[in-house]
Amino acid sequence: GLSTALALLKGSTTLQTLDLHLRGWRKQRNRRHIGEALAEALAMLKGSTTLQTLELHLRGNQIGDAGAQTLALLKESKTIQTLHLCLCFNRIGVAGAEALATLKESETLQTLYLNLADDQIGDAGAQALATLKESKILRTLHLGLCFNGIKDAGAEALATLKESETLQTLYLNLADNHITEAGAQALATLMESSTLQTLNLDLSRNVIRDARALEVQKSRSNIRDLHLPLDCLCQGPRMSAPIPINCPKRGHYTNIATGEILYDTDLSDTESSESESGSESGWRMEDESSDRE
Q1: Mean pLDDT across the stretch 211-220?
Q2: What integer is the mean pLDDT of 221-238?
Q3: Among 10, 222, 275, 283, which one is most buried in terms of CB atoms within 10 A?
Q4: DSSP of 209-242, one letter per residue?
Q5: pLDDT of amino acid 208
Q6: How far apart are CA 184 and CA 218, in angstroms?
Q7: Lowest-confidence range among 5-14, 195-204, 249-258?
């Protein structure tokens, strides 16, 4: 079984890179139990003595908070420097986000891709993830947090990532949440970071009707590579906007300013049509773009 295979991989003396795609099946029974068991099996990889890059694409496995807490044990690895965790559609809440934030304790992790799109972390979960700034060695951080019910309090917490002493690259996807001008103004201060060289901030389809704070800060920023789309910030999801490739499609898109349902998508079709999504909106997360099977 999977546990046996993973045990063999853990024992390898030459394995340096491992990329696993283990998407969940909708019709499985006891999926929560299966998800937690999967997380426990994968966490064994922390014992590898050679593994440097680990990519786990676990979309739709319903690992929940318990599974996220187990995966967070990968922080104990003595060799992993780059970690991709694609955990979208997994019913991860605040407790799971708090556990994943402890990856900051890793003694080796320099690059972290964490995709929690369409989970349930809310403001409290965003506040927990903001503590990743405390890592002493993390240089690159990708956070995919679209469709998580994040409001201004969560945005303001994430803005404190600017206090990191080591981050050089930050990709922050907060599309399709409930952030207003106050949250956007706080996030604009990320451009004041003394260490960031690359900043990619996606606030598409929130409820930001006045982007002047972002525009002013962008004009003053010294960040060398700055991507801040300002053309699709307002009025929630729109009929004309392509569905962002780094956010999973949902059953329907709603204008969060008016509550109007704009269009429907059949969830049963999304898994087979992800590659047809547009790539012009926002940024493309590595772990999500490679999660198309």
Answers
A1: 75
A2: 65
A3: 283
A4: ---HHHHHHHHH---SEEE---SS-SSSS-TTSP
A5: 86
A6: 12
A7: 249-258
